[in-house]
Amino acid sequence: MSTELNSQGSSTPSRKRSKWDEDEDPDDLSAPTHIHVPKKRAKHRVPRSQLLEQKSPSLSPSPPPPSRKHSVYVPPRTMHPPIQSSRSVYCYERLNQIEEGSYGVVFRARDKQTGDIVALKKLKLDEEKNGFPITALREVYSLMSCRHENVVRIREVVVGDTLTQVFVVMDFIEHDLKTLLTNMPSPFLQSEIKTLMLQLLSAIHHCHSNWILHRDLKTSNLLMNNRGTIKVADFGLARRYGDPVGVGGMTQLVVTLWYRAPEILMGAKTYSTAVDMWSVGCIFAELLLKEPLFQAKGELELLSMVFKLLGPPTKNSWPEYFDLPNAKTITLPSPQPHAFRSKFPHLSTAGLDLLMSFLAYDPEQRISAEEALQHPYFTSASQESPLPKHPDLFGSFPSAAAGEKRRKAFDSPSAPVRAADYKLLTEYDIP
Ligand SMILES: Nc1ncnc2c1ncn2[C@@H]1O[C@H](COP(=O)(O)OP(=O)(O)OP(=O)(O)O)[C@@H](O)[C@H]1O
Ligand SMILES: [Mg+2]
Protein backbone atom coordinates (compact mmCIF):
# COMPACT_ATOMS: atom_id res chain seq x y z
CA MET A 1 0.00 0.00 0.00
CA SER A 2 2.72 2.42 0.95
CA THR A 3 4.48 1.62 -2.32
CA GLU A 4 1.39 2.62 -4.23
CA LEU A 5 1.13 5.87 -2.40
CA ASN A 6 4.73 6.69 -3.04
CA SER A 7 4.23 5.87 -6.67
CA GLN A 8 1.82 8.82 -6.78
CA GLY A 9 4.49 11.14 -5.59
CA SER A 10 3.67 13.79 -8.13
CA SER A 11 0.06 13.90 -6.96
CA THR A 12 0.94 14.28 -3.30
CA PRO A 13 3.05 17.40 -3.25
CA SER A 14 4.81 18.97 -0.31
CA ARG A 15 2.47 20.09 2.44
CA LYS A 16 4.49 23.07 3.50
CA ARG A 17 2.64 25.47 1.28
CA SER A 18 -0.83 24.52 2.39
CA LYS A 19 -2.90 24.60 5.54
CA TRP A 20 -5.64 22.06 5.19
CA ASP A 21 -4.85 20.73 8.66
CA GLU A 22 -6.38 23.81 10.22
CA ASP A 23 -10.12 24.19 10.40
CA GLU A 24 -10.19 27.53 12.12
CA ASP A 25 -9.32 31.03 11.07
CA PRO A 26 -9.84 30.71 7.33
CA ASP A 27 -8.60 34.21 6.68
CA ASP A 28 -5.17 33.56 8.13
CA LEU A 29 -3.23 32.63 5.03
CA SER A 30 0.12 32.05 6.69
CA ALA A 31 1.43 28.51 6.52
CA PRO A 32 1.17 26.45 9.69
CA THR A 33 4.39 26.21 11.66
CA HIS A 34 3.98 22.55 12.38
CA ILE A 35 1.96 19.95 10.57
CA HIS A 36 1.52 16.56 12.10
CA VAL A 37 1.85 13.78 9.56
CA PRO A 38 0.80 10.39 10.91
CA LYS A 39 3.29 7.72 9.99
CA LYS A 40 0.96 5.19 8.48
CA ARG A 41 -2.01 7.18 7.36
CA ALA A 42 -2.64 5.13 4.25
CA LYS A 43 -3.03 1.96 6.25
CA HIS A 44 -6.04 3.26 8.15
CA ARG A 45 -7.71 4.96 5.25
CA VAL A 46 -11.23 4.00 4.28
CA PRO A 47 -11.18 2.98 0.61
CA ARG A 48 -13.19 5.99 -0.46
CA SER A 49 -11.54 6.06 -3.82
CA GLN A 50 -13.62 3.08 -4.81
CA LEU A 51 -16.44 5.53 -5.07
CA LEU A 52 -14.94 7.32 -7.97
CA GLU A 53 -15.85 5.99 -11.35
CA GLN A 54 -13.12 7.89 -13.08
CA LYS A 55 -10.58 10.57 -12.50
CA SER A 56 -9.46 13.13 -14.94
CA PRO A 57 -6.69 11.51 -17.02
CA SER A 58 -4.20 14.19 -16.02
CA LEU A 59 -4.77 13.31 -12.37
CA SER A 60 -4.11 9.59 -12.66
CA PRO A 61 -0.40 8.93 -12.93
CA SER A 62 0.57 6.08 -15.25
CA PRO A 63 0.87 2.88 -13.24
CA PRO A 64 4.41 2.08 -12.17
CA PRO A 65 5.71 -1.47 -12.43
CA PRO A 66 4.55 -3.40 -9.38
CA SER A 67 7.31 -3.37 -6.82
CA ARG A 68 5.80 -6.15 -4.78
CA LYS A 69 4.70 -9.60 -5.80
CA HIS A 70 0.92 -10.17 -5.71
CA SER A 71 -0.93 -13.39 -5.85
CA VAL A 72 -2.28 -14.01 -9.34
CA TYR A 73 -5.71 -14.06 -7.75
CA VAL A 74 -5.26 -10.58 -6.33
CA PRO A 75 -4.20 -8.27 -9.14
CA PRO A 76 -2.41 -5.08 -8.06
CA ARG A 77 -4.58 -2.00 -7.65
CA THR A 78 -2.65 -0.26 -10.38
CA MET A 79 -4.40 -2.53 -12.85
CA HIS A 80 -7.68 -0.96 -11.80
CA PRO A 81 -7.29 2.82 -12.10
CA PRO A 82 -10.85 3.51 -10.92
CA ILE A 83 -10.07 2.04 -7.50
CA GLN A 84 -6.74 3.68 -6.89
CA SER A 85 -6.19 5.64 -3.71
CA SER A 86 -7.69 9.09 -3.45
CA ARG A 87 -5.31 11.99 -3.97
CA SER A 88 -4.27 14.22 -1.14
CA VAL A 89 -5.95 17.51 -0.29
CA TYR A 90 -2.45 19.00 -0.41
CA CYS A 91 -2.76 18.93 -4.19
CA TYR A 92 -4.89 22.04 -3.58
CA GLU A 93 -4.04 25.46 -2.21
CA ARG A 94 -6.75 26.77 0.09
CA LEU A 95 -7.94 30.26 -0.87
CA ASN A 96 -10.97 31.17 1.25
CA GLN A 97 -13.87 29.66 3.12
CA ILE A 98 -17.12 30.07 1.20
CA GLU A 99 -19.72 28.79 3.61
CA GLU A 100 -20.29 26.45 6.49
CA GLY A 101 -23.44 24.40 5.97
CA SER A 102 -25.04 21.68 8.07
CA TYR A 103 -23.04 18.85 6.57
CA GLY A 104 -19.77 20.45 5.57
CA VAL A 105 -17.54 23.45 5.21
CA VAL A 106 -16.98 24.65 1.66
CA PHE A 107 -13.69 26.24 0.59
CA ARG A 108 -12.47 27.86 -2.58
CA ALA A 109 -9.12 26.42 -3.63
CA ARG A 110 -6.62 26.23 -6.48
CA ASP A 111 -5.45 22.99 -8.06
CA LYS A 112 -1.66 23.22 -7.80
CA GLN A 113 -1.12 21.19 -10.97
CA THR A 114 -3.59 22.80 -13.33
CA GLY A 115 -4.25 26.16 -11.66
CA ASP A 116 -8.01 25.48 -11.85
CA ILE A 117 -10.13 27.19 -9.22
CA VAL A 118 -12.33 24.62 -7.49
CA ALA A 119 -14.64 24.26 -4.50
CA LEU A 120 -13.79 21.73 -1.80
CA LYS A 121 -16.51 20.55 0.52
CA LYS A 122 -15.03 19.14 3.70
CA LEU A 123 -17.43 16.52 4.96
CA LYS A 124 -18.27 16.73 8.64
CA LEU A 125 -17.11 13.40 9.99
CA ASP A 126 -15.85 14.40 13.43
CA GLU A 127 -18.98 13.27 15.23
CA GLU A 128 -19.26 9.99 13.39
CA LYS A 129 -19.13 6.93 15.59
CA ASN A 130 -20.28 4.37 13.07
CA GLY A 131 -17.68 4.67 10.38
CA PHE A 132 -18.06 6.53 7.13
CA PRO A 133 -21.58 8.04 7.06
CA ILE A 134 -24.09 6.78 4.55
CA THR A 135 -25.13 10.37 3.78
CA ALA A 136 -21.62 11.17 2.56
CA LEU A 137 -21.57 8.03 0.43
CA ARG A 138 -24.93 8.98 -1.03
CA GLU A 139 -23.73 12.50 -1.78
CA VAL A 140 -20.73 11.26 -3.78
CA TYR A 141 -22.70 8.47 -5.44
CA SER A 142 -25.51 10.83 -6.45
CA LEU A 143 -23.17 13.50 -7.82
CA MET A 144 -21.44 10.85 -9.88
CA SER A 145 -24.56 9.24 -11.24
CA CYS A 146 -26.21 12.56 -12.12
CA ARG A 147 -23.55 14.16 -14.30
CA HIS A 148 -25.30 16.87 -16.31
CA GLU A 149 -24.70 20.39 -17.61
CA ASN A 150 -26.92 21.73 -14.81
CA VAL A 151 -25.58 19.61 -11.96
CA VAL A 152 -22.38 20.74 -10.26
CA ARG A 153 -19.48 18.64 -11.56
CA ILE A 154 -17.67 16.47 -9.05
CA ARG A 155 -13.99 16.20 -9.93
CA GLU A 156 -12.69 13.80 -7.31
CA VAL A 157 -12.64 12.99 -3.62
CA VAL A 158 -9.43 13.86 -1.78
CA VAL A 159 -8.27 13.06 1.73
CA GLY A 160 -6.27 14.79 4.42
CA ASP A 161 -4.06 13.25 7.04
CA THR A 162 -6.74 11.95 9.35
CA LEU A 163 -9.79 9.80 8.83
CA THR A 164 -12.04 12.77 9.40
CA GLN A 165 -10.56 14.78 6.54
CA VAL A 166 -12.49 13.88 3.42
CA PHE A 167 -13.19 16.50 0.77
CA VAL A 168 -15.42 16.46 -2.29
CA VAL A 169 -13.79 18.49 -5.06
CA MET A 170 -16.20 20.27 -7.41
CA ASP A 171 -16.05 22.94 -10.06
CA PHE A 172 -16.16 26.35 -8.39
CA ILE A 173 -19.37 28.23 -9.23
CA GLU A 174 -19.52 31.95 -8.52
CA HIS A 175 -22.95 32.31 -6.90
CA ASP A 176 -25.67 30.53 -5.07
CA LEU A 177 -29.16 31.74 -5.89
CA LYS A 178 -30.07 32.56 -2.30
CA THR A 179 -27.16 34.95 -1.85
CA LEU A 180 -27.67 36.34 -5.32
CA LEU A 181 -31.39 37.03 -4.82
CA THR A 182 -30.55 38.87 -1.62
CA ASN A 183 -27.76 40.95 -3.08
CA MET A 184 -29.01 41.77 -6.59
CA PRO A 185 -30.62 45.20 -6.82
CA SER A 186 -33.62 44.16 -8.95
CA PRO A 187 -35.34 40.80 -9.38
CA PHE A 188 -34.71 38.48 -12.32
CA LEU A 189 -36.66 39.31 -15.46
CA GLN A 190 -39.41 36.94 -16.62
CA SER A 191 -37.24 35.83 -19.54
CA GLU A 192 -34.40 35.05 -17.10
CA ILE A 193 -36.68 33.18 -14.71
CA LYS A 194 -37.82 31.02 -17.63
CA THR A 195 -34.24 30.14 -18.50
CA LEU A 196 -33.34 29.36 -14.89
CA MET A 197 -36.43 27.21 -14.49
CA LEU A 198 -35.74 25.31 -17.73
CA GLN A 199 -32.22 24.55 -16.53
CA LEU A 200 -33.42 23.49 -13.10
CA LEU A 201 -36.12 21.26 -14.59
CA SER A 202 -33.66 19.74 -17.01
CA ALA A 203 -31.30 18.85 -14.11
CA ILE A 204 -34.11 17.44 -11.99
CA HIS A 205 -35.51 15.43 -14.90
CA HIS A 206 -32.02 13.99 -15.36
CA CYS A 207 -31.69 13.09 -11.65
CA HIS A 208 -35.12 11.48 -11.57
CA SER A 209 -34.40 9.53 -14.75
CA ASN A 210 -31.32 8.21 -12.96
CA TRP A 211 -33.40 7.14 -9.95
CA ILE A 212 -32.06 9.89 -7.69
CA LEU A 213 -34.25 12.04 -5.43
CA HIS A 214 -32.49 15.23 -4.37
CA ARG A 215 -34.62 15.87 -1.27
CA ASP A 216 -33.13 19.26 -0.41
CA LEU A 217 -33.87 21.57 -3.31
CA LYS A 218 -33.74 25.22 -2.24
CA THR A 219 -32.16 28.39 -3.56
CA SER A 220 -28.98 28.03 -1.47
CA ASN A 221 -28.39 24.66 -3.10
CA LEU A 222 -28.68 26.09 -6.61
CA LEU A 223 -25.42 27.56 -7.86
CA MET A 224 -25.19 29.92 -10.79
CA ASN A 225 -22.13 30.93 -12.77
CA ASN A 226 -21.50 34.26 -14.45
CA ARG A 227 -22.65 32.84 -17.77
CA GLY A 228 -26.26 32.39 -16.68
CA THR A 229 -26.02 28.66 -16.04
CA ILE A 230 -27.54 26.97 -13.02
CA LYS A 231 -25.90 23.99 -11.31
CA VAL A 232 -27.85 21.93 -8.80
CA ALA A 233 -25.61 21.19 -5.80
CA ASP A 234 -25.67 19.66 -2.31
CA PHE A 235 -26.74 16.07 -2.74
CA GLY A 236 -26.22 15.51 1.00
CA LEU A 237 -29.81 14.30 1.49
CA ALA A 238 -30.17 12.58 -1.88
CA ARG A 239 -31.06 8.91 -2.17
CA ARG A 240 -32.00 6.32 -4.76
CA TYR A 241 -35.67 5.74 -5.15
CA GLY A 242 -37.41 2.73 -6.60
CA ASP A 243 -35.50 0.37 -4.28
CA PRO A 244 -37.64 -1.57 -1.83
CA VAL A 245 -38.40 0.58 1.21
CA GLY A 246 -37.74 -0.80 4.74
CA VAL A 247 -40.57 -1.44 7.21
CA GLY A 248 -40.15 1.93 8.87
CA GLY A 249 -40.75 3.69 5.55
CA MET A 250 -38.59 6.48 4.17
CA THR A 251 -37.23 9.13 6.50
CA GLN A 252 -39.61 12.02 6.93
CA LEU A 253 -36.94 14.40 8.05
CA VAL A 254 -35.93 15.53 4.60
CA VAL A 255 -36.11 18.79 2.70
CA THR A 256 -35.52 22.11 4.45
CA LEU A 257 -38.78 23.22 6.08
CA TRP A 258 -39.83 26.03 3.74
CA TYR A 259 -39.48 23.75 0.70
CA ARG A 260 -40.99 20.59 2.24
CA ALA A 261 -43.91 18.94 0.43
CA PRO A 262 -47.24 18.52 2.26
CA GLU A 263 -47.19 14.71 2.02
CA ILE A 264 -43.97 14.68 4.10
CA LEU A 265 -45.51 17.11 6.59
CA MET A 266 -48.55 14.86 6.86
CA GLY A 267 -46.36 11.86 7.70
CA ALA A 268 -46.52 9.85 4.46
CA LYS A 269 -44.38 6.72 4.87
CA THR A 270 -43.27 6.71 1.27
CA TYR A 271 -42.85 9.50 -1.20
CA SER A 272 -41.19 10.00 -4.52
CA THR A 273 -40.10 12.46 -7.18
CA ALA A 274 -43.08 14.71 -6.41
CA VAL A 275 -41.36 15.95 -3.22
CA ASP A 276 -38.66 17.51 -5.39
CA MET A 277 -41.29 19.03 -7.67
CA TRP A 278 -42.97 20.78 -4.72
CA SER A 279 -39.58 22.31 -3.84
CA VAL A 280 -39.18 23.37 -7.48
CA GLY A 281 -42.54 25.18 -7.16
CA CYS A 282 -41.31 26.99 -4.03
CA ILE A 283 -38.14 27.99 -5.89
CA PHE A 284 -40.17 29.25 -8.87
CA ALA A 285 -42.26 31.38 -6.52
CA GLU A 286 -39.11 32.65 -4.78
CA LEU A 287 -37.60 33.75 -8.09
CA LEU A 288 -40.80 35.68 -8.83
CA LEU A 289 -41.19 37.20 -5.38
CA LYS A 290 -37.46 37.67 -4.67
CA GLU A 291 -38.07 36.15 -1.26
CA PRO A 292 -39.00 32.66 -0.03
CA LEU A 293 -42.67 31.75 -0.45
CA PHE A 294 -43.37 29.99 2.85
CA GLN A 295 -41.24 31.53 5.59
CA ALA A 296 -42.70 29.50 8.42
CA LYS A 297 -41.17 28.91 11.84
CA GLY A 298 -42.56 25.43 12.27
CA GLU A 299 -44.48 22.71 10.51
CA LEU A 300 -47.93 23.77 11.68
CA GLU A 301 -47.34 27.35 10.61
CA LEU A 302 -46.09 26.05 7.27
CA LEU A 303 -49.23 23.97 6.80
CA SER A 304 -51.49 26.89 7.62
CA MET A 305 -49.59 29.06 5.09
CA VAL A 306 -50.05 26.32 2.48
CA PHE A 307 -53.77 26.02 3.29
CA LYS A 308 -54.11 29.78 2.91
CA LEU A 309 -52.45 29.94 -0.51
CA LEU A 310 -53.89 26.74 -1.99
CA GLY A 311 -57.18 26.59 -0.07
CA PRO A 312 -57.51 23.59 2.29
CA PRO A 313 -57.25 20.13 0.70
CA THR A 314 -60.45 18.44 -0.41
CA LYS A 315 -61.43 14.91 -1.47
CA ASN A 316 -60.97 16.12 -5.02
CA SER A 317 -57.66 17.91 -4.75
CA TRP A 318 -56.04 15.26 -2.52
CA PRO A 319 -58.03 12.03 -2.12
CA GLU A 320 -55.41 10.34 0.11
CA TYR A 321 -55.13 13.28 2.50
CA PHE A 322 -57.62 11.91 5.00
CA ASP A 323 -55.75 8.59 5.31
CA LEU A 324 -52.37 10.16 6.10
CA PRO A 325 -51.00 9.66 9.65
CA ASN A 326 -51.13 13.32 10.70
CA ALA A 327 -54.53 14.14 9.15
CA LYS A 328 -56.32 13.27 12.41
CA THR A 329 -54.32 15.79 14.40
CA ILE A 330 -54.93 18.69 12.00
CA THR A 331 -58.10 20.75 12.02
CA LEU A 332 -58.69 22.01 8.51
CA PRO A 333 -59.88 25.60 8.05
CA SER A 334 -63.25 26.10 6.39
CA PRO A 335 -63.24 25.70 2.60
CA GLN A 336 -61.92 28.69 0.71
CA PRO A 337 -60.59 29.26 -2.83
CA HIS A 338 -56.89 29.48 -3.59
CA ALA A 339 -55.12 32.85 -3.45
CA PHE A 340 -52.53 32.39 -6.21
CA ARG A 341 -53.73 35.28 -8.37
CA SER A 342 -53.57 37.86 -5.61
CA LYS A 343 -50.14 36.62 -4.48
CA PHE A 344 -48.72 36.68 -8.04
CA PRO A 345 -50.63 39.51 -9.77
CA HIS A 346 -48.12 39.98 -12.59
CA LEU A 347 -47.62 36.36 -13.58
CA SER A 348 -49.08 35.28 -16.92
CA THR A 349 -51.91 32.74 -17.01
CA ALA A 350 -49.56 30.04 -18.26
CA GLY A 351 -47.04 30.90 -15.52
CA LEU A 352 -49.74 30.69 -12.88
CA ASP A 353 -50.92 27.36 -14.25
CA LEU A 354 -47.37 25.99 -14.06
CA LEU A 355 -46.87 27.27 -10.51
CA MET A 356 -50.15 25.67 -9.41
CA SER A 357 -49.13 22.41 -11.09
CA PHE A 358 -45.92 22.33 -9.03
CA LEU A 359 -47.80 23.20 -5.88
CA ALA A 360 -50.56 20.62 -6.32
CA TYR A 361 -51.52 18.91 -3.07
CA ASP A 362 -51.82 15.41 -4.46
CA PRO A 363 -48.36 14.03 -5.33
CA GLU A 364 -50.02 11.91 -8.03
CA GLN A 365 -51.41 15.00 -9.72
CA ARG A 366 -48.29 17.14 -9.25
CA ILE A 367 -46.50 17.87 -12.52
CA SER A 368 -43.27 15.95 -13.27
CA ALA A 369 -40.05 17.62 -14.41
CA GLU A 370 -40.43 16.05 -17.83
CA GLU A 371 -43.97 17.38 -18.25
CA ALA A 372 -43.03 20.81 -16.93
CA LEU A 373 -40.31 21.16 -19.55
CA GLN A 374 -43.07 21.02 -22.19
CA HIS A 375 -45.35 23.51 -20.45
CA PRO A 376 -46.72 26.41 -22.57
CA TYR A 377 -45.11 28.86 -20.12
CA PHE A 378 -41.82 28.06 -21.83
CA THR A 379 -42.93 27.23 -25.34
CA SER A 380 -45.99 29.16 -26.43
CA ALA A 381 -44.49 32.10 -28.32
CA SER A 382 -47.88 33.58 -29.25
CA GLN A 383 -49.25 33.89 -25.70
CA GLU A 384 -46.11 33.81 -23.62
CA SER A 385 -43.98 36.85 -23.99
CA PRO A 386 -41.08 37.10 -23.37
CA LEU A 387 -39.53 33.76 -24.27
CA PRO A 388 -36.58 32.40 -22.25
CA LYS A 389 -33.45 34.50 -22.46
CA HIS A 390 -30.22 33.02 -23.79
CA PRO A 391 -27.86 32.34 -20.82
CA ASP A 392 -25.08 34.36 -22.51
CA LEU A 393 -27.25 37.47 -22.21
CA PHE A 394 -27.49 37.29 -18.42
CA GLY A 395 -25.72 40.04 -16.52
CA SER A 396 -22.82 39.08 -14.29
CA PHE A 397 -22.58 39.88 -10.61
CA PRO A 398 -19.78 40.17 -8.06
CA SER A 399 -19.17 36.74 -6.59
CA ALA A 400 -19.58 36.64 -2.82
CA ALA A 401 -18.11 33.13 -2.80
CA ALA A 402 -14.91 34.43 -4.39
CA GLY A 403 -14.78 37.20 -1.80
CA GLU A 404 -15.60 39.90 -4.35
CA LYS A 405 -18.37 41.31 -2.19
CA ARG A 406 -20.11 39.72 0.68
CA ARG A 407 -23.34 40.32 2.44
CA LYS A 408 -25.08 37.72 4.55
CA ALA A 409 -28.15 36.33 2.87
CA PHE A 410 -31.46 36.37 4.72
CA ASP A 411 -31.67 33.69 7.33
CA SER A 412 -33.53 30.59 6.34
CA PRO A 413 -33.87 27.31 8.19
CA SER A 414 -31.06 24.82 7.74
CA ALA A 415 -31.34 21.40 6.18
CA PRO A 416 -32.90 18.83 8.48
CA VAL A 417 -30.58 17.08 10.91
CA ARG A 418 -30.00 13.46 10.15
CA ALA A 419 -32.71 10.95 11.04
CA ALA A 420 -32.51 9.76 14.66
CA ASP A 421 -34.10 12.48 16.76
CA TYR A 422 -37.04 13.21 14.53
CA LYS A 423 -40.19 13.92 16.44
CA LEU A 424 -43.73 13.87 15.22
CA LEU A 425 -45.28 16.98 13.83
CA THR A 426 -47.42 17.56 16.89
CA GLU A 427 -44.45 17.39 19.26
CA TYR A 428 -42.56 20.04 17.35
CA ASP A 429 -45.19 22.67 17.04
CA ILE A 430 -47.07 23.89 19.99
CA PRO A 431 -49.39 26.46 18.47
N1 LIG B 1 -19.16 24.09 -6.11
C1 LIG B 1 -19.35 25.21 -5.41
N2 LIG B 1 -18.88 26.39 -5.84
C2 LIG B 1 -19.09 27.53 -5.13
N3 LIG B 1 -19.78 27.57 -3.97
C3 LIG B 1 -20.27 26.42 -3.49
C4 LIG B 1 -20.08 25.18 -4.16
N4 LIG B 1 -20.69 24.21 -3.45
C5 LIG B 1 -21.23 24.81 -2.38
N5 LIG B 1 -20.98 26.13 -2.39
C6 LIG B 1 -21.42 27.13 -1.38
O1 LIG B 1 -21.42 26.54 -0.11
C7 LIG B 1 -22.75 26.52 0.43
C8 LIG B 1 -22.95 25.25 1.23
O2 LIG B 1 -22.72 24.13 0.40
P1 LIG B 1 -23.61 22.81 0.51
O3 LIG B 1 -25.03 23.21 0.36
O4 LIG B 1 -23.10 21.79 -0.43
O5 LIG B 1 -23.28 22.38 2.02
P2 LIG B 1 -24.24 21.88 3.16
O6 LIG B 1 -23.41 21.72 4.36
O7 LIG B 1 -24.94 20.65 2.73
O8 LIG B 1 -25.23 23.09 3.30
P3 LIG B 1 -26.69 23.23 3.93
O9 LIG B 1 -26.87 22.18 4.92
O10 LIG B 1 -26.68 24.61 4.51
O11 LIG B 1 -27.63 23.11 2.78
C9 LIG B 1 -23.68 26.67 -0.77
O12 LIG B 1 -24.90 27.26 -0.41
C10 LIG B 1 -22.86 27.58 -1.67
O13 LIG B 1 -22.98 28.93 -1.25
MG1 LIG C 1 -26.75 23.25 1.12
Short synopsis of the structure:
It catalyses: L-threonyl-[protein] + ATP = O-phospho-L-threonyl-[protein] + ADP + H(+); L-seryl-[protein] + ATP = O-phospho-L-seryl-[protein] + ADP + H(+). The protein has 431 residues and is α+β, with helices and mostly antiparallel strands. Helix content is 24%, strand content 12%.
What layout of secondary structure does this protein have?
Elements lengths: L1 H6 L79 E2 L3 E9 L3 E8 L5 E7 L10 H12 L8 E6 L6 E6 L3 E2 H7 L6 H20 L2 E2 L8 E3 L5 E3 L6 E2 L21 H4 L8 H16 L9 H12 L29 H4 L5 H10 L10 H5 L2 H4 L45 H4 L3
Parallel strand pairs: 1-5
Antiparallel strand pairs: 2-3, 3-4, 4-6, 5-6, 7-9, 8-11, 9-10
The structure holds adenosine-5'-triphosphate and magnesium ion.
**Kindly, what is the distance between the CA atoms of the first and last residues, rounded to a whole number of angstroms?**
59 Å
Question: What pattern of helices and strands is seen along the backbone?
Answer: HEEEEHEEEHHEEEEHHHHHHHH
Total of helices: 12
Major beta sheet summary:
6 strands, mixed
How many DSSP E strands? 11
Q: List low-pLDDT spans.
A: 1-18, 24-62, 418-431
Shape category: globular
Distinct compounds present? adenosine-5'-triphosphate, magnesium ion
- The radius of gyration is 24 Å
Average pLDDT, all residues:
79
**Which structural class do you get from the secondary structure elements?**
alpha+beta
Beta-strand percentage? 5-15%
Residues in helices, as a percent range: 10-25%
| Spatial strand order of the main sheet | 1-5-6-4-3-2
